[in-house]
Amino acid sequence: MAHVTDFRYSIVAREDYSDVTFMLEVCHPLMARAARPGQFVIVMSHADGERIPLTIADFDAEAGTVTLVIQAVGKTTKEMQRTCRVGAELYGIAGPMGIPSPLGHAKKVVCVGGGLGVAPVFPQARGFKEAGAYVIGVLGFRNRDLIFWEDKFRAVCDELILCTDDGSAGMKGFVSQGVLRAISDHADIEEVVAIGPPLMMKACADATRPFGIKTMVSLNPIMVDGTGMCGGCRVKIGDKVKFACVDGPDFDGHQVDFDDLLVRLRRYKEEERVALERFNEDCRMRTVPEGAKVVSDLPRARG
Q: pTM of this prediction?
């Protein structure tokens, strides 16, 4: 690991959890000391790269590192999957941004993570545990092969409910069903925190609404530039309009207009599709098939 006085956002560890999901541990001592659960960062992988908001999945003030878990679904994240290796450096990482999640008030909580949302809900689970709460973790994956961080959650949770779509591990079903199981076992749950795809967070909010259990969701998926300048992350919270990046990212899930949020998520689909197609075509042009003859456009050296 780089010394705390000699770093330039160096990637000191990487782990791949699936063909599209990977973890980067980045050296940034100042940010590691300042980070709090629920916050996010703005990352640029190279000088000409896109600025993208990513939720902080873990931070270690003693080691001076910040952990990001990324899903390669668009042009920029696929490029990061290809180029961000141990020893490489990120061009820029700014933060921590966003309002930290309020912890320490609830005595019994359920922390729910679905898919990629498993990573950013970990600091919340750990934070609640450190504040003295009884923590129930509910984690959801499509199948057993996609499970990651189970051991990390078991270390900070008093109970852990694993859910898989196909039933290959834990209970068969969605995390919203795991939440209902936790509620049936514990009548004194004071709060649920859910992070993941918008439809998953909506399902969790719908599950807790009849019981009147406070349910917080993280609206990171809708953020674009992460500073409030673009206005792309406007969300309807009750009868008010908020900005996910500067007023959140945590909001009362029972007040979020998820229908409006889902429409906004589709706003840049065409631009994202075109950017990804261009990136894939560029990758194909740069890749020379094994055994193919390489023809150079450069003049041959004389000698």
A: 0.80
